């Protein structure tokens, strides 16, 4: 049967007639696609300036223009082009709609993260390059996508956090207001002078690089503990990137300065009094 089909004469006149019949429609469809592409090229710059003027995030601008705006234009162009080629666009659209519903149910988590991504771009709780603590992770925001937020930690590891988790967690932005204050707790013995300890600590902190002189460092009494007078050394850095360096340095230098000044840093201890202890002769 296949051999008979292959041996059957080909009606070239019929093919040419059909080709010439649909050629204008093909030309119209191609013209529609080219026209929408030109529309995109001529309007993307205007749309970009509008979004920049509205203080939209650069990443969101790129997504809106290069993905969503272009996608919408191409879908409209595709539907119009197919309709000129005789395709039943209504039936095809209905089929895509049913398939879209099925995909939506199967990808609820992905869609939730994408919606959360839009909320992050709109609300702007942080920007790329800022230092944040979120979902138990501390680091610099390296990238923001529609689905995830990527954080680079001080260990040079990348943490990828789903955007839905980001918006549902308490977030600390260490860089939002510029300067960052560091608090280092130091305990001294009750027999020591608070004023002497304050003088020693402030003198040592003022020598540390990255510590600002305005606002000036302070040493305050936080509480009177069971075994110690609990002080807090407060100092400011200009950039949150220096926060950990300043924290570790102040902690180390405070210990060394108090040791050099012979100011005791106590440790928790307990005195036990025993009643009814037998005498030595018993």
What does this structure look like?
The protein has helices spanning 2-7, 12-53, 58-84, 89-106, 108-123, 163-168, 194-205, 243-260, and strands at 131-134, 137-144, 148-152, 158-162, 172-173, 180-188, 218-224, 229-237. It is elongated and about 115 Å long. The chain is α+β, with helices and mostly antiparallel strands. Helix 2 runs antiparallel to helix 3 and helix 7 crosses helix 8 (243-260). It is built from 8 helices and 8 strands; from the N terminus they run αααααββββαββαββα. The chain folds into 3 domains: 12-106, Helix Hairpins (Orthogonal Bundle); 125-173, SH3 type barrels (Roll), CATH 2.30.30; 180-260, 2-Layer Sandwich (Alpha-Beta Plaits). A 5-stranded antiparallel beta sheet has the order 4-3-2-1-5. It has a 3-stranded antiparallel beta sheet with strand order 6-8-7, covered by helices on one side. It starts with a helix and ends in a 22-residue tail after the last helix.
Write the layout of secondary structure elements.
Layout: H1 2-7, H2 12-53, H3 58-84, H4 89-106, H5 108-123, E1 131-134, E2 137-144, E3 148-152, E4 158-162, H6 163-168, E5 172-173, E6 180-188, H7 194-205, E7 218-224, E8 229-237, H8 243-260
Antiparallel strand pairs: 1-2, 1-5, 2-3, 3-4, 6-8, 7-8
Helix pairs in contact: 2-3, 7-8
In short:
The protein has 282 residues and is of the alpha+beta class.
Gross morphology is elongated
Count of DSSP strands: 8
Report mean pLDDT, rounded to a whole number. 83
The CATH topology annotation of the largest domain reads as Helix Hairpins
Low-confidence spans: none
Number of domains: 3
Going across the biggest sheet, name each strand in turn: 4-3-2-1-5
By CATH reckoning, the class of the largest domain would read: Mainly Alpha
Structural class: alpha+beta
Rg, Å, rounded:
35 Å
């Amino acid at each position: 049967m296949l051999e008979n089909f292959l041996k059957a004469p080909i009606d070239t006149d019929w093919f040419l007639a059909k080709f010439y019949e649909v050629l204008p429609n093909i030309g119209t469809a191609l013209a529609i696609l080219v026209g929408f592409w030109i529309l995109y090229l001529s309007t993307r710059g205007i749309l970009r300036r509008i979004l920049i003027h509205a203080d939209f995030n650069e990443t969101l601008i790129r997504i809106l223009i290069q993905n969503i705006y272009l996608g919408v234009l191409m879908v409209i162009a595709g539907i119009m082009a197919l309709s000129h080629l005789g395709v039943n666009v209504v039936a095809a659209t209905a089929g895509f709609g049913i398939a879209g519903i099925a995909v939506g149910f199967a990808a609820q988590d992905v869609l939730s993260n994408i919606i959360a991504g839009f909320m992050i771009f709109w609300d702007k709780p942080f920007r790329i390059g800022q230092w944040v603590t979120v979902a138990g992770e501390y680091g610099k925001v390296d990238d923001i996508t529609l689905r995830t937020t990527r954080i680079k930690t001080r260990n040079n590891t990348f943490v990828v956090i789903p955007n839905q988790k980001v918006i549902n967690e308490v977030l600390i932005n260490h860089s939002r207001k510029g300067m960052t204050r560091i608090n280092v707790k130091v305990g001294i013995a009750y027999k020591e002078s608070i004023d002497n300890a304050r003088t020693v600590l402030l003198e040592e902190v003022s020598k540390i690089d990255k510590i600002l002189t305005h606002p000036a460092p302070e040493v305050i009494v936080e509480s009177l503990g069971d075994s110690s007078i609990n002080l807090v050394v407060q100092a400011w850095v200009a950039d949150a990137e220096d926060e950990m360096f300043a924290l570790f340095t102040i902690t180390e230098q405070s210990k060394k300065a108090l040791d050099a000044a012979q100011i005791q840093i106590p440790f928790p201890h307990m005195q036990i009094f025993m009643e009814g202890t037998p005498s030595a002769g018993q």
